[in-house]
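dude i think i finally got it to work??
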Amino acid sequence: MKTLLPTDGSKCARRAAEYVIRHAAMLGPDPELVLLHVQPRLPNRAAAALSRTAVERYYHDQSEKALALARRMLGRKSIAFKEVKLLGDAGEAIASFATKGRFQLIIMGSRGLGGFGSLVLGSVAHKVLANCKVPALIIR
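look at this
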Protein backbone atom coordinates (compact mmCIF):
# COMPACT_ATOMS: atom_id res chain seq x y z
CA MET A 1 0.00 0.00 0.00
CA LYS A 2 1.31 3.45 -0.89
CA THR A 3 1.06 5.40 2.37
CA LEU A 4 1.94 8.99 3.23
CA LEU A 5 3.06 9.85 6.77
CA PRO A 6 3.31 13.64 7.14
CA THR A 7 5.22 14.76 10.22
CA ASP A 8 6.21 17.95 11.97
CA GLY A 9 7.83 16.41 15.04
CA SER A 10 4.80 17.03 17.28
CA LYS A 11 3.30 14.61 19.82
CA CYS A 12 0.42 13.78 17.48
CA ALA A 13 2.85 13.14 14.61
CA ARG A 14 4.79 10.81 16.92
CA ARG A 15 1.58 8.94 17.70
CA ALA A 16 0.88 8.63 13.96
CA ALA A 17 4.35 7.09 13.47
CA GLU A 18 3.68 4.73 16.40
CA TYR A 19 0.42 3.72 14.74
CA VAL A 20 2.24 2.92 11.50
CA ILE A 21 4.76 0.82 13.44
CA ARG A 22 2.09 -1.09 15.38
CA HIS A 23 0.01 -1.69 12.25
CA ALA A 24 2.76 -2.18 9.68
CA ALA A 25 1.17 -5.44 8.55
CA MET A 26 -1.92 -3.56 7.35
CA LEU A 27 0.26 -1.74 4.80
CA GLY A 28 0.58 -4.99 2.88
CA PRO A 29 3.43 -7.26 1.86
CA ASP A 30 5.41 -4.65 -0.11
CA PRO A 31 4.46 -1.27 1.40
CA GLU A 32 5.62 2.05 0.02
CA LEU A 33 5.83 4.48 2.93
CA VAL A 34 6.75 8.13 2.42
CA LEU A 35 7.67 10.33 5.36
CA LEU A 36 6.84 13.94 4.47
CA HIS A 37 7.65 17.27 6.06
CA VAL A 38 6.34 20.58 4.74
CA GLN A 39 8.25 23.64 5.90
CA PRO A 40 6.43 26.99 5.69
CA ARG A 41 8.22 29.52 3.52
CA LEU A 42 9.96 32.39 5.25
CA PRO A 43 8.29 35.77 4.74
CA ASN A 44 9.71 37.49 1.65
CA ARG A 45 11.36 40.25 3.68
CA ALA A 46 13.13 37.78 5.94
CA ALA A 47 14.30 35.64 3.04
CA ALA A 48 15.51 38.72 1.14
CA ALA A 49 17.58 39.84 4.14
CA LEU A 50 19.43 36.52 4.27
CA SER A 51 21.77 34.85 1.82
CA ARG A 52 20.39 32.05 -0.32
CA THR A 53 22.71 29.64 1.51
CA ALA A 54 21.36 30.76 4.90
CA VAL A 55 17.75 30.32 3.75
CA GLU A 56 18.45 26.86 2.33
CA ARG A 57 20.30 25.88 5.52
CA TYR A 58 17.35 27.09 7.61
CA TYR A 59 14.86 25.04 5.57
CA HIS A 60 17.12 21.99 5.72
CA ASP A 61 17.69 22.26 9.48
CA GLN A 62 14.00 22.73 10.26
CA SER A 63 13.01 19.74 8.13
CA GLU A 64 15.71 17.59 9.71
CA LYS A 65 14.39 18.45 13.19
CA ALA A 66 10.83 17.62 12.16
CA LEU A 67 11.77 14.31 10.53
CA ALA A 68 14.27 13.12 13.15
CA LEU A 69 11.91 11.40 15.60
CA ALA A 70 9.81 9.54 13.02
CA ARG A 71 12.98 8.60 11.11
CA ARG A 72 14.49 7.07 14.26
CA MET A 73 11.26 5.29 15.22
CA LEU A 74 10.78 3.71 11.79
CA GLY A 75 14.47 2.87 11.49
CA ARG A 76 14.53 1.03 14.82
CA LYS A 77 11.77 -1.25 13.56
CA SER A 78 13.43 -1.67 10.14
CA ILE A 79 10.44 -0.19 8.33
CA ALA A 80 11.55 1.04 4.93
CA PHE A 81 10.52 4.54 3.90
CA LYS A 82 11.42 7.41 1.64
CA GLU A 83 11.67 11.03 2.76
CA VAL A 84 10.29 14.07 1.02
CA LYS A 85 10.74 17.70 2.06
CA LEU A 86 8.49 20.39 0.63
CA LEU A 87 8.01 24.12 1.12
CA GLY A 88 4.67 25.89 1.40
CA ASP A 89 1.38 25.70 3.22
CA ALA A 90 1.40 22.31 4.96
CA GLY A 91 -2.26 21.41 4.45
CA GLU A 92 -2.32 22.34 0.79
CA ALA A 93 1.07 20.74 0.06
CA ILE A 94 0.17 17.46 1.77
CA ALA A 95 -3.16 17.25 -0.07
CA SER A 96 -1.55 18.05 -3.41
CA PHE A 97 1.37 15.65 -2.91
CA ALA A 98 -0.95 12.83 -1.84
CA THR A 99 -3.22 13.35 -4.84
CA LYS A 100 -0.46 13.73 -7.44
CA GLY A 101 1.48 10.83 -5.95
CA ARG A 102 -1.59 8.58 -6.08
CA PHE A 103 -1.27 7.58 -2.46
CA GLN A 104 -3.77 5.10 -1.11
CA LEU A 105 -3.73 6.36 2.48
CA ILE A 106 -2.56 9.31 4.56
CA ILE A 107 -1.81 8.66 8.23
CA MET A 108 -1.28 11.86 10.19
CA GLY A 109 -1.65 13.43 13.60
CA SER A 110 -4.74 15.43 14.44
CA ARG A 111 -2.80 18.45 15.65
CA GLY A 112 0.71 19.66 14.98
CA LEU A 113 3.08 22.31 16.19
CA GLY A 114 1.11 25.21 14.73
CA GLY A 115 -0.18 27.75 17.22
CA PHE A 116 -3.59 28.23 15.67
CA GLY A 117 -6.40 25.92 14.62
CA SER A 118 -9.74 24.65 15.67
CA LEU A 119 -10.38 23.03 19.03
CA VAL A 120 -11.25 19.61 17.62
CA LEU A 121 -8.98 19.21 14.62
CA GLY A 122 -5.80 21.07 13.69
CA SER A 123 -5.84 23.43 10.75
CA VAL A 124 -3.41 21.31 8.69
CA ALA A 125 -5.44 18.12 9.14
CA HIS A 126 -8.59 20.08 8.35
CA LYS A 127 -7.09 21.44 5.11
CA VAL A 128 -5.91 17.99 4.07
CA LEU A 129 -9.38 16.54 4.58
CA ALA A 130 -11.01 19.44 2.76
CA ASN A 131 -8.64 19.43 -0.23
CA CYS A 132 -7.87 15.77 -0.82
CA LYS A 133 -9.82 12.69 -1.84
CA VAL A 134 -7.14 10.28 -0.60
CA PRO A 135 -8.45 8.45 2.48
CA ALA A 136 -6.91 9.83 5.66
CA LEU A 137 -6.50 8.24 9.05
CA ILE A 138 -6.23 10.99 11.65
CA ILE A 139 -4.49 9.93 14.86
CA ARG A 140 -5.22 11.76 18.12
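The first strand starts at residue 2 and ends at 6.
im so relieved honestly
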